[in-house]
Write a structure and sequence with these properties.
Distance between the termini: 56 Å
Helix content: 55-70%
Number of strands: 4
Amino acid sequence: MAIVINPISPVAVSVFGMDIRWYALAYIAGFLICFWLFLRMIRNQNSGIVLNKKQSDDFLTAIILGVVLGGRLGYVLFYNLPFFIAHPIEIFMVWHGGMSFHGGLIGVMIANFIFAHKNSLSGWKTLDLCAVLAPIGLFFGRIANFINVEVMGRPTDMPWGVIFKGYTEIPRHPSPLYEAITEGVILFVWMWYLYKKTNLKSLPGALSGVLAMSYAVARIFCEMFRAPDAQIGFLTTWGLTMGQLLSGAMFIVGLAIFICAKNKKFLTK
């Protein structure tokens, strides 16, 4: 028997006529928690990163811009370009949903390296710390997806299949929750363990490579239960999705970064 759920309003609260959405609160929570942990991590003498108050605030701003701009442009380019060419104003309406993790990752990398260059820091070291904390943001983002009834799963007869009244007539995999668990909780525990218990943090770029590969594996797995984007569908007759294609490329790039890091290619960069 499926689990029947009354949809939750995407608006968490209205203040003076302004709607504050769960999607926005998820991003805010993710940024604040990650920033708090980032500051604690760089206070560790072994981090090799020293930032003053202004630099810390500037780094947070850079990462936020990287996530939002990269995530939105990634969605526009990878998932729905014809629509946004016809409706360009929709590009700026991020509250309607539509963010790409792969685009956000590219945006964060660009923002990170620009910041590091301007402040004479190792971009790979700062990126590694971001890699450890990224699953936290992914967790909150996927919970927001579930609340908004976004990126829902394929039809299922499993007892935990979900029916959202007024949205879905047949039980579907709650795929955003699968992703919250795998890409969020499990991946964070994995990255935190590697950061705390191994010497990978002494090899700039290594943790970034591991995060890319680990996320790719988790995403490819979860895409097996997630319905393909309606405007794209499956890319092949055997069921390849855009998310799996991008994640496959991400795994290869992550492997290349990890190999370079293990060979100490980034130690002086």
